[in-house]
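ARCHIVE RECORD
Type: protein–small molecule complex
Small molecule: IPE
Source of inputs: curated submission
Record status: active
Notes field left blank by submitter.
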Amino acid sequence: MDGNGRWAQGQGLPTIAGHRAGANAAQRITERAAQRGIEFLTFYTFSSENWKRQQSWIDDFMGLLRWYLNQEAKTLMKKGVRLRVIGDRSLLPHDIQELIQELELKTQNNTTITVILALSYGGRDELKRAMQAIACKVANAELSAEDITCSLMEQHLDTSGIPDPDLLIRTSGEQRLSNYLLWQMAYTELVFIPTLWPDFSTQEFDQALEIFSQRQRRYGLYVDVS
Ligand code: IPE
Ligand code: MG
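STRUCTURE (tokenized, with ligand):
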């Protein structure tokens, strides 16, 4: 969800207004994704590297996140959204950790769409934590080195039980992965869109799905010339 800061700057508004507009865009796209039958939608909301930003920015952002999580419960239930959070949540303010836990529990049986918020999330950090958990089990003789398979790795990632993403959409013209879902994106199709996230429309979302539908996915197999 890139470009909130630049959007606010362009409008002559404080940065937090950009994140607020970004939250509206996330609601809009969630609704559209559900209409289009998408089952899993992940938003890169706050990265492990974002902790290095100014404390005042972090405080404003956490304030907005707190407000959003508080007021979102009703909407999530009404729309049948199951919420999950990936990332190192132990670094988040305690009350936010509790809010997340409550919402995950409350929405766990919702079936329209699963929305995953990547919060305090970094792909390398996630892999490091998975490896630590596996190393502990090996050290305790619960597992041996030969038991470490791709599927065991996946079970120890934050995304355990969530399928790998088919499509990544990055807004604002940046063309990088920025430490996002590094393991899970091995075969993800990438679409880059110049629009700043707060302006990202349902039409542009549909266009990205259209681009995706024209991609030929081979997963390392031969080109299909038939
Ligand atoms: C994206 O907005 C959302 C977060 C990183 C939290 P940015 O803050 O990256 O906005 P730009 O890229 O500076 O415009
Ligand atoms: Mg950015």
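CURATOR ANNOTATION: DSSP finds seven helices and five strands in the chain.
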